[in-house]
Design a protein that fits this description.
5-stranded antiparallel β-sheet; 15 helices; alpha+beta
């Protein structure tokens, strides 16, 4: 009996997929990583036990594992490896709401949107909301410590993870944390696995903190003559208050959305801010007034308390990735800096776009300094591809030089691993590698992700 047949014999029917026509779609995430390999097989796990079986088999046969959720990642973190095993968690979609404890017990394949809907049925809310919240999975959110539009006020995924079940490299299933709000017994191992991009273990269950449903929101939209003016307004806003949303779109991203799906945005604006405030009662109007005062350089400021009208602007912001994706091949940037240095970062990106003669629309979770420059290029033109790769690297270096990070929420993956040592430095890189070696001594989990092979 072949080794793969042995794995098949341990799993229920139709859990293991070996047909190349069916495994093809498991090769890439949304970054379309050109280095993605052809997997030996795909395990579509339905239970934690299936994951354990796959991990033990892979360890015994020295086969690398790529863990995969919904495949919406933007850094090549779930790209398949030639001859490797893909462990897909898309079938593990269970959601249980404990309203009394205000937590959701969630399997990794459950979509972010489904958790929100389930929580809302109990008057509760799960705040982290990536732009792809309708199609991204909780497992992927945990793996990359995903953020989103509301994170300026409410925090990112790690702020809501109270517990995790994790399958380790030897197949052991460990249960970390739980429903407890306060728990400092032992090392903070839950936080170690959040953002580890599948390199330390495979998450099979998460206990997520919920909060009461978000209240009424007021939406402010401000247009500016330049990105610099909009960025300066962001700095001024964050110096005085913390709205529940503070998003920025530059002129190329505005026009990309209007070309893709006309939303009535001002094509001539140099940049636009979409701001929401959800403070209770009269405090909300006071907060809106602070934001409006900080937008003194705006060409126009529009404020609405109408939820549907406000959501239309938020929807336009969420469309940016899809809209720019239609303009050519993309390198997805995800760099962030301390908020006061946001104007410098945006100026640096504009300079890089001009230097390399490329279109680089920018959309940003501006309130927390996290930007998404989208490097557009022609994949059929070697010169364009070369310039795009150089621009991608230059943007990361610009962020590092401004005390920033090469990734705020999308993860390092394979796309950014070469720049990670530049940000962390040799001592922190060495410490990170020691942790990786301790938990995954044979390098079974996601080889090539985050760390060079």
């Amino acid at each position: 009996m072949s080794a793969l047949s042995q794995l098949e014999a341990q799993l229920p029917p139709r859990v293991l997929i070996t047909d190349p026509a069916r495994t093809e779609k498991y090769r890439w995430d949304w970054s379309r990583d050109a280095s993605a390999g052809v997997p030996l097989a795909v395990v579509r796990a339905r239970t934690a036990e299936h994951v354990q079986i796959a991990v033990r088999w892979a360890a015994a046969n020295h086969v690398p594992i790529t863990t995969r959720g919904a495949g919406t990642g933007l850094s090549g973190g779930s790209s398949a490896i030639d001859g490797g095993l893909v462990v897909s968690l898309e079938e593990m979609v269970g959601i249980e709401i404990d309203a009394a404890s205000q937590v959701a017990i969630v399997e990794p394949g459950a979509l972010n949107k489904c958790v929100k809907v389930s929580a809302a049925e109990h008057g509760l809310w799960y705040p982290p909301d990536p732009s792809s919240y309708e199609i991204c999975s909780i497992g992927g959110n945990v793996a990359t410590n995903a953020g989103g539009l509301c994170c300026v006020k409410y925090g990112v995924t790690t702020d809501y993870v109270l517990g995790l079940d994790v399958v380790l490299a030897d197949g052991t299933l460990v249960k970390l944390g739980g429903k407890r709000i306060k728990d400092v017994a032992g090392l903070s191992l839950v936080k170690l696995f959040v953002g580890s991009e599948g390199t330390l273990g495979i998450v099979t269950r998460a206990v997520l903190r919920l909060i009461p449903l978000q209240g009424a929101r007021s939406t402010l939209v401000a247009t500016f003559a330049s990105v610099e003016a909009a960025a300066n307004a962001v700095v001024a806003i964050r110096r005085s208050c913390r709205p529940s949303m503070l998003e920025l779109m530059d002129r190329p991203s505005i026009n990309a959305v209007e070309d893709y799906r006309p939303m009535g945005l001002d094509r001539n604006a140099g940049a636009m801010l979409v701001v929401q405030c959800d403070a209770p009662g009269p405090a909300r109007q006071a907060e809106v007034a602070i934001v409006e005062a900080a937008c003194s350089e705006a060409l126009e400021v529009f404020v609405t308390d109408d939820a549907e009208e406000g959501e239309a602007f938020v929807s336009a912001r969420r469309l940016v990735f899809d809209a720019v994706d239609c303009r050519g091949s993309l390198f997805f940037e995800d760099v962030g800096v301390p908020v006061p240095r946001l104007p410098e970062l945006l100026a640096a990106v504009a300079g890089i776009a001009e230097r390399y003669d490329l279109e680089i629309p920018v959309v940003a979770h501006a309130g927390d300094g996290n930007t998404h420059p989208l490097v557009v290029y022609d994949a059929t033109d070697p010169g364009s591809s070369k310039r795009a790769k150089e621009a991608f690297a230059a943007i990361m270096q610009a962020a590092i030089a401004l005390e920033g990070t090469i990734t705020g929420e999308h993860g390092v993956g394979r796309a950014k691993r070469s720049a990670l040592p530049d940000q962390l430095g040799p001592d922190v890189m060495a410490l990170s590698l020691k942790i990786k070696k301790a938990l995954d001594p044979d390098g079974v989990f996601n080889p090539g992700v985050m760390f060079a092979e």
